[in-house]
Write a structure and sequence with these properties.
With about 290 residues, this protein is an alpha/beta fold. The chain is built from 12 helices and 11 strands. The strands form 3 sheets. A 5-stranded mixed beta sheet has the order 8-7-9-10-11. The protein has a 4-stranded mixed beta sheet with strand order 3-5-6-4, with helices on one face.
Length: about 290
C-alpha cells in the first residue's frame, strides 16, 4: 500500500505546489547513534530543499520486538529527532477528557496539560482500537516523549473545519500538552550519554576555548590525537590533557581523524584521498559539553 499512499499524497500536495518525499523509519534509527545522525540529516536536508517528508515505519524490516508499532509514538519520535516546536495529532476524538466520553456523558475536555504526570495514563484507559493500532493511551505515550523533549503537542479532531490553520492561529482546539523547558544540551543527553564511549579525541587549548566559550563544532584543525578504535557514528569523549570537555557523535573513524588532525578544511580531501563528507569531526548539534 505504500506506493498507492504516496501517489495520493503526491497528487494532493501537488495541488498546493508542494513536493513530498517518502521516508521509512525504524526504531533502530532512533536508538542507534549512527543511524540517528543519518535520520536527522535526511530530515533536515529534505526540509531545506522544501520537500515535505511523509514518514512511516518500515514494517518490512521491523521485527515485532523492535517495532514502534503505532503512528502516535512514531510521530513523537520523528518530532524529537527533528527537534520540532510542535506536534499535532489529528484523531477521531476532540482531545483528552477527564473520563471516557463514550461511557460518561458528563466528561469534560481538558484543554491544556501544563505538566505531564503518569496519572494521565489512567485517564487515557487501555490501548488499541478496532480498526488499527493506537488509541488515547498511545497518544499519551507520544505526549510523554514530546513533553520530555521540550516539544508542545496537540490532540485535536481531524474533521474540525480548518483545524490546522486554526491551531496555527493559536485558537484553543483540542488538548495542548506543554513541552518542558528543556535546555538544548539536555536534549542531546540521552542519545550521547546513553551510548557507550568508544574512544577519545584530544584537542589543543585553542579548540578547548572554542568548544567551551563559543559553542563551536569540533574541527580537525584543533585535534592533536586520538585513543581507541572508534568508527563513524560512535560516541567519543573529547579531552584536553586529562580533562574531559565533552562527548559527541563522531562523523569519522579514528583512522580518518588521525589523518585529518591539525588540518584546515581545505586540506581534508588531500589527506583523506577523497572529498571530505563533513567539515566537522563532531557537529555542535551532536556535542554535549560535560563541564
Amino acid at each position: 500500500g505504500q506506493g498507492v499512499l504516496m501517489n495520493m499524497y503526491e497528487h494532493l500536495f501537488h495541488e498546493y505546489g508542494q513536493i513530498v518525499a517518502q521516508l521509512l523509519f525504524t526504531k533502530g534509527d532512533a536508538v542507534n547513534s549512527k543511524r540517528y545522525l543519518h535520520m536527522r540529516g535526511t530530515l533536515q536536508a529534505l526540509l531545506e530543499l522544501g520537500a515535505i517528508p511523509i514518514v512511516n515505519e518500515n514494517d518490512a524490516v521491523s521485527a515485532d520486538e523492535i517495532k514502534i508499532g503505532d503512528n502516535d509514538t512514531l510521530s513523537a519520535i520523528v518530532a524529537s529527532v527533528a527537534e520540532a516546536d510542535l506536534l499535532i495529532i489529528l484523531s477521531d476524538i476532540q482531545g483528552l477528557y477527564d473520563k471516557d466520553p463514550k461511557n460518561h456523558p458528563d466528561a469534560t475536555l481538558i484543554h491544556e496539560v501544563p505538566e505531564f504526570t503518569r496519572e494521565l495514563f489512567a485517564i487515557a484507559g487501555g490501548a488499541g482500537t478496532a480498526r488499527g493500532t493506537g488509541g488515547m493511551y498511545t497518544k499519551i505515550q507520544a505526549a510523554e516523549i514530546c513533553v520530555h523533549s521540550g516539544i508542545d503537542m496537540i490532540i485535536a479532531k481531524s474533521d474540525e473545519e480548518d483545524v490546522l490553520e486554526r491551531i496555527m492561529d493559536s485558537e484553543e482546539i483540542g488538548t495542548l500538552f506543554r513541552g518542558e523547558n528543556v535546555h538544548p544540551q539536555l536534549k542531546k543527553r540521552d542519545i550521547i550519554i546513553g551510548t557507550a564511549v568508544k574512544g577519545k579525541i584530544f584537542v589543543d587549548e585553542g579548540c578547548k576555548k572554542a568548544l567551551l566559550e563559543k559553542g563551536s563544532s569540533l574541527l580537525p584543525v584543533g585535534i592533536v590525537g586520538t585513543e581507541g578504535n572508534f568508527l563513524e557514528g560512535d560516541t567519543v569523549a573529547v579531552y584536553f590533557h586529562n580533562q574531559e570537555l565533552a562527548r559527541g557523535i563522531s562523523h569519522y573513524s579514528a583512522s580518518d581523524v588521525n589523518l585529518m588532525k591539525g588540518l584546515r578544511t581545505e586540506k581534508l580531501a588531500e589527506a583523506l584521498g577523497t572529498e571530505a563528507p563533513y567539515d566537522t569531526v563532531i557537529h555542535r548539534d551532536n556535542l554535549l559539553i560535560m563541564k
